[in-house]
Amino acid sequence: MSEQTHQHDQQNKSNDRALSPAAQELFSTLGTSISPDLFVEALTHRSFTNEHPLAHNYERLEFLGDAVLELVITETLYKNHPTYSEGQMSRIRSKVVSEESLSEIARDKLKISQFILLGIGEQRDKGAYKPSILCDVVESLIGAVFIEQGIDKARQVIHHLLDDNLAFYTTEGPALDWKTAIVIKAHKMNLGEVSYRMEMSGPENHLEFTAYLLINDQDVAWGRGSSKRKAQLDAAQKAWHQLDSKTESINDASLPDASLPDATLPVAEEE
C-alpha cells in the first residue's frame, strides 16, 4: 500500500461512519472511499452548477478519469494479449470504455443514479438515468480516486469494476466484427458456409433492411437495420450468441431456431 493510499484510508475512517448506508454500499462496490467534497464534485452535473454557481461540476474529473481509464485498459490489453494487433486492442478498448459499458456499471453495479446532482430541468428529463450522464459519472469517480490515491488505487478500482466487461469483450465474438466472428464460429463447429438473404421495405427515402443469416442454407437468425451492413451485423451478432450458447458441436439438424419474421418483402441482392 502506498503512503498516499494509507493516509487517505486513515483520514476517511471517521467519514465512512457518517455515510448513509447507500453511500457505504457504493464505496464498498467501488473498492475504496472518496473524501466528501470530492465525492460531491464527482456527482455534480453541469445543470446543477448552472443553478448553484458556487458548486463545482464533475467535468474536470471526468476528463481526467477518462484518460486514466484508457491508460489502464490499454496497459492491460498490451500485457495480457501479446499477440493482439494494434487494431484488435483498439476495438476492444473502445467497447470496454464505451458509454454502453460504463453506464451499465453505473446503473447495475454502483447504482449511482440516486446520488447524481442535477438541475431542475435535467431532473425532469430523468437525467440521472441517461447513459451519457451515467458514463460521465463513472469516469469522474475514477478521476477522483486518482487525484486522492494515485494510479495504483485507480488501477485497482478500474479492474474491480471493469474486468468482467473486459473479459467479455476479449472473447472471440465481441472482439471481432460480428460478420467475421460468425464465420469463424461456424467453421470451428463444422456447420458449413455462412450466407445472407436480404429483404427491404419502406419508402425509397427511408428503407429498412432485414437480413436473414443462413448456415449451410438453413436460417439461423435475422436482423434489421437502416442499411444492408447494419442488418447483417445485427443478424450475425444474434447468430453468434445462439451458437456460443451451445456447449457441444451441433449438426445441421440441430441448428438453432431462427424465429424468423414473416417474409413477404421484396428481395434485395445477397452480399
Automatic annotation (TrEMBL):
Q: Which residues bind Mg(2+)?
A: 62, 136, 139
Q: Where is this region: Disordered?
A: 247-271
UniProtKB keywords: Cytoplasm, Endonuclease, Hydrolase, Magnesium, Metal-binding, mRNA processing, Nuclease, RNA-binding, rRNA processing, rRNA-binding, tRNA processing
Q: Which GO terms describe its biological process?
A: mRNA processing; regulation of gene expression; rRNA processing; tRNA processing
Q: Which InterPro entries match?
A: dsRBD_dom, RNase_III, RNase_III_dom, RNase_III_sf
Q: Which residues form a coiled coil?
A: none
Compartments where found: Cytoplasm
The UniProt entry, under Pfam families, shows: dsrm (PF00035), Ribonucleas_3_3 (PF14622)
Superkingdom classification of source: Bacteria
Cofactors that this protein relies on = Mg(2+)
Which family, according to the similarity comment? Belongs to the ribonuclease III family.
Its biological purpose: Digests double-stranded RNA. Involved in the processing of primary rRNA transcript to yield the immediate precursors to the large and small rRNAs (23S and 16S). Processes some mRNAs, and tRNAs when they are encoded in the rRNA operon. Processes pre-crRNA and tracrRNA of type II CRISPR loci if present in the organism.
Q: Would you tell me the protein name for this molecule?
A: Ribonuclease 3
